[in-house]
Amino acid sequence: MSGIYIHIPFCKQACHYCDFHFSTSLKKKDELINALCQELELRKGEFKNSSVETIYFGGGTPSLLTNDELQFIIDSVYKNYKVSDHPEITLEANPDDLSKERIIALSKSPINRLSIGIQSFFEADLKLMNRAHNANEAKSCLDEATKHFDNISLDLIYGIPGASNVQWLANIEMALSFGVPHISSYALTVEPKTALASFIKKGIIDNVDDEQAHEQFYMLKDKLEASGFVHYELSNFGKDGYFSKNNSAYWQGKSYLGIGPSAHSFNGKQRGWNVKNNSKYINAIAQHELPIEIETLTQTDQYNEYIMTGLRTIWGVSFRKVEEDFGLVFKDYLIEQSEVFINQQLLYIDDGHLRVTKKGQFLCDGIASELFKIN
Ligand code: SF4
To answer: What is the predicted pLDDT for the residue at 249?
Structure first.
């Protein structure tokens, strides 16, 4: 199975916490779309032997593209790749781009999954984060989207300074009231060089409170699990049959092509990064050159990645797979390193798999890094 990720590097305005690659100027939009299609063509040999099961428009804000522009890119995928009969085609969209007419038009396009960047239903939170939409738009777009799409995910952010646990619970309940089958939720993190980092430094915004983020993570988990969601990845909850196929493929170490500036690719052994600059990307593609840096993963890198992604998911880390793929030395190392966390009830072994306990989940990335092997 293979997936294609397409990065649309434009946003209306910069959210204060965001360090993704995007430009708020749309001047190069047409050139960029042509370059994306050219990159798709240049790289068609990479997926010669497998069919594309998922196409994912991420960003940035892919919903800034018109339906015709999205269709143009999808056509280019079909022209250059073998696509399975029922691919999952996801569009990340922001509420301010999802008018009733737009949603209806999208529902008639090949796009069959929407991932909507709600983040919060509270005006104060949206302002603090400098989101382009308001609380009413968040609600009205979900009202409409759920009438025309069955497969919808929404994003929520927890640990927002000033947002109490009572407010957080109201956010979760509001999200549930729309009946969506998938919710992704992330802690607000303060990335260096973002507006949020600078506001916190100047004392304009309170720092994020780890203790509160910790509480809100478990409130989310308890509430969603009680509502029939499976917590299948640390930041992702889905009803049966609605786990993100695109993201599950990443977590299960499957191959994907990342198209567009800053997009990442993975073929099982090598990881690639496209240049993080729209002009450089467009110019390189115009010369028929791939603006990509490639790193070949060592066996240790591959083991470390498997530990990180495995622990984050309900599939856990298989001791048998570690032994088969990396050898007995790695398996013994894993057993030895995990012992202390098992004793602290942060990890447990079940059916030949190492998994995080509920208590360990919030600390998952830190625990995984303690199990890493150093080259
Ligand atoms: S819309 Fe998304 S990608 Fe764009 S600035 Fe906001 S968080 Fe970042």
So the answer is: 86
- Chain segment 26-52, per-residue pLDDT in tens: 999 999 999 999 999 999 999 888 899
pLDDT above 70 as % of the chain: 100
Quick one: pLDDT at residue 252?
Answer: 85
Residue of minimum CA distance from atom 2 in ligand 1 = 60
Is 251's C-beta closer than 6 angstroms to any atom of ligand 1?
A: no
> The dihedral of CA 68, 71, 73, 75: what is its sign?
negative
Q: Give me ligand 1 centre to Cα 12, in Å.
A: 8
Structure tokens at 115: 């991932």
Model confidence pLDDT, tens digit, residues 178-187 = 999 999 999 9
| Look-up of token digits 């915004």 | 205
The CA-CA-CA angle for residues 87, 186, 208, to 5°, reads: 165
User: How far apart (Å, rounded) are the C-alpha atoms in residues 122 and 139?
Assistant: 10
Report how far Cα 1 is from the mean position of its chain's Cα atoms: 18
Residue of 7, 22, 127, 184 to mutate, ligand 1, most atoms within 8 A of C-beta: 22
What are the average pLDDT values for consecutive 10-residue runs of the chain, which has 375 residues? 93 96 96 98 91 96 98 98 97 98 98 98 97 97 98 98 96 98 97 96 94 97 98 97 92 92 94 97 98 96 95 96 96 97 98 97 96 89
| Atom number in ligand 1 closest to CA 129 | 6
Decide: 18 in ligand 1 pocket, CB within 6 A: yes
62 lines ligand 1 (CB under 6 A): no
* 14 ligand 1 Cβ < 6 A: yes
Phi/psi at 274 (5° precision): -75, 155
11 lines ligand 1 (CB under 6 A): yes
Other beta carbons less than 10 A from residue 71's beta carbon: 14
Peptide bond into 60 cis (omega under 30): yes
- Cα(1)–Cα(249) distance, integer angstroms: 8
- Say if residues 125 and 163 touch (Cβ distance below 8 Å): yes
* The ligand 1 atom nearest the CA atom of 131: 6
Structure-token pair, residue 347: 């990890």
